[in-house]
Amino acid sequence: MSTPTYLIVGATLPTGERTDLVVQDDRLTRLAPGTDSASTRGATRIDADGLVALPGLVDLHTHLREPGFEQSETVLTGSRAAAAGGFTGVFAMANTLPVSDTAGVVEQVMALGDDAGYATVRPIGAVTVGLGGERLSEIGAMAHSRARVRVFSDDGKCVHDSLLMRRALEYVKTFDGVVAQHAQDPRLTENAQMNEGALSSELGLKGWPAVAEESIIARDVLLAEHVGARLHVCHVSTAGSVEVIRWAKSRGIVVTAEATPHHLLLTEDLVRSYDARFKVNPPLRRDEDVLALRRGLADGTIDIIATDHAPHPTESKESEWDAASFGMVGLESALSVAQTALVDTGLLGWNDIARVLSRTPAEIGRLAGHSHAFENGAPANFTLHDPSAASTFELDRLAGKSHNSPFLGRTLSGRVQHTFHHGYPTMIDTRVLDSDTVKASAALWKAGTPA
Amino acid sequence: MRHLLSTKQLSRDEALQILDVAEDMATVNEREVKKLPALRGKTVVNLFFEDSTRTRISFEAAAKRLSADVINFSAKGSSVSKGESLKDTAQTLAAMGADGVVIRHHASGAPQVLAESGWIDAPIVNAGDGTHEHPTQALLDAFTIRRRLFGDTSRGRNLKGVSVVIVGDILHSRVARSNLWLLETLGAHVSFVAPATLIPFGASTWPATISYDLDTTLRETQPDVVMMLRIQSERMNAAFFPNAREYARIWGLDDARLATLRPDTMVMHPGPMNRGLEISAGAADSARSTVLEQVANGVSIRMAVLYLLMSGQS
Ligand SMILES: [Zn+2]
């Protein structure tokens, strides 16, 4: 069988080369610009003049909320948000209800993603049963399940017991997996509301001190070194954490780290408004932390950008600060924020963006099909981004179920125009395709793929 | 000035205006008929999410002396404690025609959220929010200090050069914060004295002198005002200090320390006091103590605030 063919005309690759791209079945072929080929006759043409082509973005840290919190997001709506942001792969965090701590739940999440078709959904397995921090969950069963789980995390909670963390690192190593740690000392952050500093003291909001993150990272890199396992650090937020990770890497410790878009652009000063859209965990930090994270990405200390997309219904943000939920949606705005914070400032080029938002997260999560360099025959997971225009980030850019974006009303650079997953479009001309169309494309793709 | 949310945002002119109008209100409070028609037909809602009888009745007295109707809306035992949101409560009050809302809330920033939400259009007065601010307390403290210093010639005067030592649980005190910002704006100098565990993180960047040593501070400053803050016993369990005895010995205003003060040094306390802990009975009841003046002045200040925020609107 054969899916429609697309001809992408005049795209700029991350390397700066200009090329036409043919999308046929689920593969990419490069074509010198202006070539008239028999294979492209009848193809749907997409004018990509001025657009940057990037391999499909991969988010190692997404909260899709299903099962259990479908009022905030579902696998379908969350992966739709992913498509709107140029993502074709998302790793779904385990803090669902029931918790993703068994083969049954992770297979269900993956199946929902496959069915929706907007992106390749890879579940993350919980490290401990029910995120309880006491007993290891069925890590082997999840690794061997159809979902082939390779990333394990109790995100939302820190695996704070040192012995349990040691065992988790060792046991996950058995399956070529990685523990993604939410680094937060629980006692130092009881009821914490925002970054601890003069501002939290002035606003009367309980502080979340940098040391609560840095001390856990320091312990974990030493544990990873001791047992020879790999460690991934979620949402690094402080300059001190960047220093600790830089030191660990210089010792040869196998650690990778992520920074979120919001920690790369926003600071704690926004909390002065007591507007709970800016409430997130770990909290927004100081200017110097933002700059340290950007420098860390530029010099490779921080490996990737991951969104920590955390949808919440309106009512859980429409309240006094203390009562509001932590978290921000981030999939739809991630690439524009990355451009604003890193490309426009000269710290990263588009090749680096492809690395930190696609290649490396795919490698960390052992996800195939997303780390290509547009070589002939590469899987047709890619996105086309218009870097030229700055615009106000408005509600119509959000494609998930929840609207808790801290970027609404802010001017951001660039805009994702088109996204292709497995060779079929999920977004065309900034419009996300409707779910029936995408679902049908996914079914067609699946039928043509050897099981 | 549309709302009174904090003293941090008050300009010197705004602060002096409130203090001067409070002088007029104090004159009313000394008359036989303690009532003005200024807010006749208007409704003030006391929206209290946290118990505080003292503050609530002070606002209630202030509103009534301005001839306003008062509705007391206490969170305890109401729908609020059953999970009704601040938004729903605010919209209910708006629908009932509240012309002004006095809010006390356990969450810092709740008054500001209310003021900026669009859920209700009325002026909002912060009557204490979390560990953020308690602006009318600071205003009544400044008013009390000014009256003690300048008596009948208080009107129009600031507190330039006045030295105020605030002692105790600065970390959890919205009174300390509001006092710092207001006293600084009025030209006074503030010292905070407490164990390091009870000094807010980052307070070294604030316009206050920080000290751990009460005796040295009292000796070197010879302050015009010593303000003692209430110490809550649950702080001991959270390891802020070992026990009440040790705290009282090092940071309490006992009779011996009282004796070292200048005869005209004021001893203030926002109440309620823990006699024998942060303040001795001798200090609390001495002629230096302003505790009862603070209560009386509280009504005048709150009258001034309600009058300034509410009398202009139609
Ligand atoms: Zn997390």
What are the main properties of this structure?
heterodimer; A: 451 residues; alpha/beta; Urease, subunit C, domain 1; TIM Barrel; 2 domains; 5-stranded antiparallel beta sheet; 5-stranded parallel beta sheet; 19 strands; 30% helix; B: 314 residues; Rossmann fold; 12 helices; binds zinc ion
Taken from the alpha-carbon principal axes, the silhouette of chain A is globular
Total strands of chain B: the figure is 9
The CATH C-level class name of the largest domain in chain A: Alpha Beta
Number of domains of chain B: 2
Q: How far apart, in Å, are the first and last alpha carbons of chain B?
A: 16 Å
| The named CATH superfamily of the largest domain in chain A | Metal-dependent hydrolases
Strand content of chain A: 15-25%
Describe the main β-sheet of chain B briefly.
5 strands, parallel
Q: Terminal Cα separation of chain A, in Å?
A: 15 Å
Bin the helical content of chain A: 25-40%
Mean pLDDT of chain A: 96
Please name the CATH architecture of the largest domain in chain B: 3-Layer(aba) Sandwich
Structural class of chain A: alpha/beta
Count of distinct strands of chain A:
19
Oligomeric category = heterodimer
The H/E string of chain B reads HEHEHEHEHEHEEHEHHHEHH
Radius of gyration of chain B: 19 Å
The SS-based structural class of chain B is alpha/beta
